[in-house]
Design a protein that fits this description.
The protein is mainly beta. The protein has helices at about 5-10, 35-50, 185-190; strands spanning about 15, 20-25, 30, 35, 55-65, 70-80, 85-95, 100-110, 135, 150-155, 170-180, 210-220, 230-235, 235-240, 240-250, 255-265. The chain has 3 helices and 16 strands.
Length: about 270
């Protein structure tokens, strides 16, 4: 039998009855020991689509209760509403003796061809060709080994922080795809919105883990095959918090996902 692609295997869920799914979070999807928040959101997305019987998450809002670790876990789901077009469910990822992430999600069926836009006040980020952007390769320090699970190529103008030369503008733009040609579906978009380094790395502030308090993803369409063009920006760093607004555009130039994240400023 062919080997299951890495992301599909990492987010595989097994129904155990009574709205509960078992999962096994593998090693290597972490940031300094803490499982990437996008992967955790994707696990919940996989469970709620299975629980509601609808193929795509449309909106998922996750509240992060404590750091996630690799290993066995469960997802408990509760379907709150089943409508003609959409269903809404609650899901909680549990590991060890506590809850890790709890989410509210609406699921439905997304189109792979969203059609002509009615109104656009933005456009895909202006990126150089893929091979002219800087590939992030995982290390024991920075970037973390998580970067070996995905392929992120940063705009050269936004990559100076890697060499200790932050731009002073908390903005990161670049290309994203899964490794080994694994296709990206709507669940994969939940990973994409949290796969780039923190925008704060370009803000001339201390490097460090920026714990996610809440992450919301809005999905517009299933992405066309190919690289995703991504942009993540922060406008306000205040009160010990920062927000990150994300946009994800597919190879056809269609907006396929948006995100907003509230995170904690690293302690110096």
């Amino acid at each position: 039998m062919p080997e299951t692609p890495a992301f599909a295997a990492a987010t595989h869920v097994v129904f155990r009855g009574d709205g509960t799914f078992s999962v096994e979070i593998p090693d290597g999807w972490d940031i300094v020991g803490n499982v990437d928040g996008g992967l955790l959101l994707a696990l919940l997305g996989r469970a709620v689509t299975a629980a509601t019987g609808r193929p795509d998450p449309v909106t998922v809002t996750g509240h992060y209760l404590r750091p996630g670790r690799s290993g066995p876990a469960t997802v408990a789901t509760e379907v709150l509403k089943e409508g003609k077009r959409f269903s809404t469910a609650r899901a909680t990822l549990r590991a060890g003796d506590g809850d890790v992430v709890t989410a509210l999600a609406t699921t439905g069926t997304l189109d792979s061809d969203p059609g002509k836009p009615i109104h656009l006040a933005g456009s895909p980020p202006d990126l150089p060709p893929v091979d002219e952007c800087e590939l992030l390769v995982g290390t024991d320090g920075f970037p973390p080994t998580f970067m070996d699970r995905v392929e992120v190529r940063l705009h050269p103008e936004d990559a100076g922080f890697i060499r200790g030369e932050p731009t002073g503008v908390p903005l990161l733009r670049g290309w994203f795809r899964l490794r080994d040609g694994e296709p990206i579906d709507s669940i994969g978009l939940l990973l994409a919105v949290d796969s780039f380094p923190p925008t704060i790395f370009n803000a001339s502030l201390p490097f460090g883990w920026t714990p996610t308090v809440e992450l919301t993803a809005h999905l517009r369409a299933r992405p066309a095959p190919g690289w995703l063009a991504c942009s993540f920006a922060t406008r306000f760093i205040t009160g010990g918090f920062l927000e990150v607004d994300g946009e994800v555009w597919d190879a056809h130039g269609d907006l396929v996902a948006q995100s907003r994240q509230l995170a904690l400023v690293p302690r110096g």
